[in-house]
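Hi C.,

You asked whether I'd gotten around to modeling the 371-residue construct. I have! Everything is below, sequence then structure, no commentary in between.
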Amino acid sequence: MKEANVKLKVVQPLLAALGWDTTAGDVEMEWSVRVGSKTAAVDFALLLEKKPVVFVESKGFESKLDKDDAQQAISYGRVEGVKWSVLTNGKELNLYDSSESKEPEECLITSLSLDRLDRESDEIRLLSKQALISQEIEILAKTKKALVAARRKLDESRSSIVAAFAVALAKSLPDLPTDLIKDLSDKAFVKVQAEVSLAREKTEGVGVGITKVAPRGKKGAFGGEPHLPSIGRQDIDGPPEATVLVCPARLEFGIDFLFKYEAWAFLRITRRPDYLALYLTNPVSKILYLGEVDRLSSPLSTRSDVEEIDDEDLRTFKTGKRIVWLKKGSIRKLSDPIPSGKLGSAPQSPWYTTLKQFISAKDTGDLLRTH
């Protein structure tokens, strides 16, 4: 197929399947971009609130997606301030982060074969309208960036990290021979390095980054699966006076715990909420997930009081804190997440609000006034 046929027979149907409605103004073809003294046209611009959020460049079926093509697609995004750029020839599809001032291969978020969509549905779903609204793509990009940086820092700091392991072991296990402590420290570093590499590999060409990494130990109903049912806040069926506990969560640590256990821990709270809502911090900066509360644990005295949670996930345990357990399968992704309001209105600690306020809130500032 020539480029025109790739656009017509592959790209347009694919965008429609991903929720981009050409009749509703979601897609504009031949989007003008000013590059230096010349004007170029991007094949497709995907729009949210009439602003482009993704540029899509098409090539002919027999064209190779080379570095120059990638650089061109990325440059259009950089000029227009559009973060995500797509390059496809109808057989392959590459997704780039245009905001990165790096070589194309370093801007690459995911690459997939369009003739294997039955096996790569998680990957293509990153370009769905819903994924752009919920910013799942941001989660993957941030996770990949953090893991690449972590691996680089590990390589650069091996000697100091091994020395730190040795000091910690010698302090905790003073009777061990020095040679054994050194050997154990080397092995500990290699293990950490391997785990970081494994986590990085699992974000290469897959869906939603850290929530996609298969957790160990007991799994919740979703088993780490990011394909959650979505719900609009107006469709939440509960009494207006029901209490919603809003908790902040960082991308690097947190949302994997929610999916792994269908629970949230460890909190110093006194009353049982009816719902738990999760606010994802920068760069998402939105309340994105909601689940119904099943039970609230008693204040925990020791780590041995904690059941159904792996030791590796007890790092934030403190005496007197509690676990909020959710009803199995109740976690939903908000199709209309609550964005962060003005400076100082984002949750820094657990908040209580009412379901009525949660449903009607325009931003987190509205919830702060009921906190």
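If it helps when you're writing up: The chain has three domains: 3-132, 138-212, 230-368.

Thanks,
B.
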